[in-house]
């Protein structure tokens, strides 16, 4: 949502309604699973913040990394090179 609706990133960004439709289609796939915080999140999150000395805008990446680790996900497909900083998560750029 943040990137696909951002006029500063894309010349023709999606409207929120269009972005939601794309995400609904993606989430509707049988091999897609949504993850959310469990009772382990806060401890995992604190460890991630302190291990990488993250602050400021990098904190949103820490939330994602903590969720991945909490659910045993060790590979992330993203073009965001910031995820290379997280130990235990292999970051793969699908555009390369």
Topology:
Blueprint: H1 16-27, H2 41-52, H3 59-70, E1 75-77, E2 90-92
Parallel strand pairs: 1-2
Can you describe this structure?
With 96 residues, the protein is mainly alpha-helical. The protein has 2 domains: 1-34; 41-92, no CATH class. It is 38% helix and 6% strand. It has a two-stranded parallel ribbon. The protein is globular and about 40 Å long. The two termini are 22 Å apart. The mean pLDDT is 93.
Gyration radius, rounded: 15 Å
The dominant shape is globular
Low-confidence stretches: none
User: Strand order, biggest sheet?
Assistant: 1-2
Helical amount among residues, as a percent range?
Answer: 25-40%
First-to-last CA distance: 22 Å
Task: Classify the secondary structure makeup into a structural class.
Answer: mainly alpha
- Please identify the oligomeric state: single chain
The number of E-state strands comes to 2
Summed up, the helix count is: 3
Percent of sequence in beta strands = 5-15%
Average the pLDDT over all residues and give the rounded result. Answer: 93
H/E element sequence: HHHEE
Number of domains: 2
Task: List its salient traits.
single chain, 96 residues, mainly alpha, two-stranded parallel ribbon, 3 helices
Quick structural overview:
With about 100 residues, the chain is mostly helical. The protein contains three helices and two strands.
């Amino acid at each position: 949502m943040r990137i696909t609706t951002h006029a500063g990133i894309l010349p023709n960004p999606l409207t929120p309604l269009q972005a939601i439709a794309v995400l609904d289609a993606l989430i509707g796939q049988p091999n897609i699973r949504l993850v959310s915080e469990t009772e382990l999140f806060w401890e995992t999150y604190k460890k991630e913040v302190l291990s990488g000395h993250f602050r400021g805008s990098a904190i949103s990446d820490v939330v994602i990394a903590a969720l991945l680790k909490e659910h045993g996900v060790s590979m992330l497909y993203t073009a965001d090179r910031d995820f290379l900083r997280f130990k235990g998560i292999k970051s793969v750029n699908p555009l390369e």
